[in-house]
Amino acid sequence: MKSAPVQARFQEVLGKKSSGFVSSLLTVVNNNNLLKRATPDSIMTAAMKAATLDLPIEPSLGFAYIIPYGQEAQFQIGYKGLIQLALRSGQITGLNSGIVYKSQFISYDPLFEELEIDFMQPEDEVVGYFASMKLSNGFMKVVYWTKARVENHKKRFSKAGAKSPWATDFDAMAQKTVLKAMISKFAPLSQEMQIAVIADNESETLEPKDVTPEQPLISIDEPKENENSQSQISIPEDQAPQQENEEFVEELFPVGQA
């Protein structure tokens, strides 16, 4: 981290924010014994992905993480990071996701994607998860996955074990999965978002040795000025690997229903 080439690279990507980012990186590594075991090259690669996306890596902020997978460190985007990158496009005016409970669920029409929920009812058994989006051109999208569908996705794509976020924070990971599926297929994708989704897809298939903090439910509506600021949640994701991209499309649009 103290070498001139490394400092120059972060300076090139982050400008005046490079010193703060480097300090944050050193703090993250020093405070995580498992991350200390990862190779320096893998830590630098993961950190550079976060720097390129202009996302802070402090775990408490929830934008991006550097996660130890044995001796390899991997970049993983957080719940807020997905939203941050999506909002940066300037074309999204509303973005939300959440949990659907059995007592609140009324109906869902997959043909026209009409989801009816009574949020006045008490929270009880979780039956599904939703994500919704509004674009400035008037386009609106709602995606709803049952809990069983999310569990099938987890089994299909995630090789994570008992210590993974899927095991400790299933609802948070489920919301992130549905949100990512919607954004990566239906939102205007910047190059940043494509990079983030690809990197997150790669980390899904690895066996984590540490967990990330739970991501809170985020709801953004009508973002105002200063949308490019990191200090607020503004419009933060695909050329995902071809196989997974096709599998996502298949899940959202089954053959014969596209």
Fill in the keyword field for this structure:
4-stranded antiparallel β-sheet; RecT_fam; 258 residues; globular; alpha+beta; disordered C terminus; two-stranded antiparallel ribbon; RecT; ssDNA_annealing_RecT
The SSE order reads: HHHHEEHEEEEEHHHHEH
Tell me the major beta sheet: 4 strands, antiparallel
Q: What would the average pLDDT be, to the nearest integer?
A: 76
Categorize the overall geometry. globular
Query: How large, in whole angstroms, is the Cα Rg?
Result: 18 Å
Strands across the major sheet, in which order? 7-6-3-8
How far is the N terminus from the C terminus? Answer: 49 Å
Give your account of this protein's structure.
The protein is α+β, with helices and mostly antiparallel strands and 258 residues long. It has a domain at 90-192 and 215-258. The chain has helices spanning 4-14, 18-30, 33-36, 40-52, 79-87, 147-157, 165-168, 170-186, 191-204, 242-252, and strands at residues 64-69, 72-77, 92-101, 105-109, 114-117, 126-135, 140-146, 219-221. A hairpin with a 4-residue loop joins strand 4 (105-109) and strand 5 (114-117). Helix 1 crosses helix 2 (18-30). The termini are far apart.
